[in-house]
Each structure stands twice: as C-alpha cells, then as structure tokens.
Specification:
Elements lengths: L1 E2 L6 H17 L6 E2 L6 H8 L9 E4 H10 L7 H4 E17 L7 H11 L4 E4 L5 H13 L4 E4 L3 H9 L5 E5 H10 L2 E6 L25 E9 L4 H15 L2 H9 L2 E3 L7 H21 L6
Parallel strand pairs: 1-2, 5-6, 5-7
Antiparallel strand pairs: 3-9, 4-7, 4-8, 4-9, 4-10
Length: 294
C-alpha cells in the first residue's frame, strides 16, 4: 500500500488502521510504503507507473486524485486514465486550528486578526497541492487575505510546528487534529464542513460562524494502476469492504473522527464517477482563486 504522504499524517492513519485486517482478508501481508513529496504526486505517480499486477496499490485522496489535475500546470499523471478505481473508503473533515497563543477564540476573531496581521503570519500544510493546502488557500481567498504558505512533507509534520508555535495556523484532517485539540496543544477555530462533526460536536462549523456555503473536506480511496486485471481489482475491493465492516476497524475510525462511507458508495463504478465529479468540483475554486502552480 503506497501512502503518498509522510508517516503520522491523516492518510497514514487511514492506512495503518486498515493494514492488519486488510492483510487478513487478502491472506497476504500488507506493507505500507510512505512516499511523500509534491503534495502526494510523487508516491501517486510511482503507483501509476508500476506493473499492474496488484502488488502495488495507492491510498489516494482529494489532493492526489482531484486537486492535482487543476492545481498543477503539468501534473505527473492523469487521474482518469492512469488508474483503475477500486473503492472509496472514508470522508475526513478538515479543521482550522491555530497555535495555542494566537489571541483569538472563534472564526470571526480569527478573520479580524488575520486581516490585521496577514503580512506577518504564516499557515502550514501537508504539502503544496494537498487537501490541507487547498483547504486553507480557499479559506484565505474567501476571507480576503494573502498569507505566506509553509508546506511540509505531511500533515503530522505541519502540526508539530503549529504546536511548537513556529507557524500560526493549519487546516488539517480530523485524525491529526483531534488528539491535539483534546490535549490543548493547539486552538480549534472551526470545522470546515457545512455541519458539525460527530467527533467534535463542540466545535462550530465555518458556515455556522458566518462563512455561508463554505466547505473544504478530504476523502480516501484505493486505486490500482491502469490495466490491472478485473479479478485483482475485485479481490482488493471485496477485501477492503470486508475490512471496513470489521467492528474493531470501525471503532478505530470513529475514535479518529473518520467517517467510513456507506454501502451505496462502495462500488468501483461509484468511485470512478465520484473522482470525475471531484475534479470538476475543485477546478472551479482553484481557477477562480488563481491557485495554479508549476
């Protein structure tokens, strides 16, 4: 399983939860390889170019499979033609968190502070082009600020520097945010979904706090290289669904604030259509906000 981000980040958490039970379902050991870089494109391209024999598969997300296709002028692969979709696994909310000594307590105070200090503050991300980058970039564009971006090789590494107060804020997935919010090492400002997360019921959404119709979230799914035989695709699909139905796996996902998708969203055909729609969905705001990069 190629996780195209550093260990400790949200996609790594998803992979580690699935790893052992998925190996049991496949009757073969699953080894995770973290291949970070280029907002997840380095590891994703590695799978795209690998032999389509089922021995390498990708844990992709909104950044690697959707955002990359518009954000970069020359992405390292074509999501729609270089991969065989297997199964959508989970939705992950993004949370806006700040260093614990930032003098704000809610989103409106954060907006006022950011506008007054935009030439001094910095935001972190798990890499240029990652969901964590785009989440904050869209937020910045929506509230009308231009803040320096500090990319890291994964969301976990970015969080470490927010905790250390080297950077000011981060839009990060719930698995990375929740333990730090619980321990008080960072300050939660808003969840970037339309409604509240079942995992963070006390944290008001950006929409509740005045940003109408604002939403930024992440998801995870398995992909195989183009040309992988249908029987192999089906085997990985079925083993993954079996793993997702395992009560221990479900409990661990819930504890990390990750929402497994329902049966109606688990087919390979659904994932193919979903990714196509996500590419279109993100292309609009990326272009509108001038977020393209080399």
């Amino acid at each position: 399983m190629v996780v195209p981000f550093a260990a400790g980040g949200p996609m790594d958490v998803v992979g580690r939860i699935l790893q052992s039970t998925l190996g049991d379902a496949l009757q073969q050991q699953v080894i995770i390889e973290n291949v970070g870089g280029a907002g997840g494109m380095t590891g994703t391209a590695k799978v795209a170019k690998s032999t389509p024999d089922g021995y390498q598969f990708l844990l992709g997300n909104v950044g690697t499979q959707a955002v990359s296709q518009t954000l970069y002028k020359q992405p390292l692969y074509d999501t729609m033609t270089d991969f065989t979709p297997v199964v959508l696994i989970a939705d992950l909310s993004l949370v806006l968190v700040a260093r614990k000594d930032l003098p704000v307590s809610n989103l409106q105070e954060f907006i006022a502070y950011a506008k007054a200090n935009q030439d001094k503050i910095q935001f972190a991300s798990g890499g240029a082009g990652s969901a964590t980058h785009l989440g904050c970039a869209l937020l910045n564009a929506r509230i009308g600020i231009n803040v320096t971006h500090v990319p890291y090789r994964g969301g976990g590494l970015a969080m470490q520097d927010v905790i250390a107060q080297r950077v000011d804020y981060l839009c990060v997935d719930t698995p990375v945010a929740m333990p730090q919010i619980a321990s008080g090492t960072v300050k939660p400002i808003a969840i970037l979904t339309r409604g509240r997360s079942p995992s963070l019921l006390n944290l008001a959404s950006a929409q509740e706090q005045g940003l109408t119709d604002f939403e930024a979230s992440n998801w995870s799914a398995f992909f195989l290289p183009k040309g992988t035989p249908a029987a192999i695709v089906q085997k990985l699909h079925d083993a993954t669904v079996t793993t997702m139905n395992n009560p221990t796996v479900q409990k661990r996902f819930k504890e990390n604030g990750i929402d497994l998708v329902g049966p109606e969203r688990q087919s390979s055909d659904y994932l193919a259509k979903f990714v196509a729609s996500e590419i279109v969905k993100w292309a609009g705001p990326i272009k509108a906000n001038g977020l393209t990069s080399e």
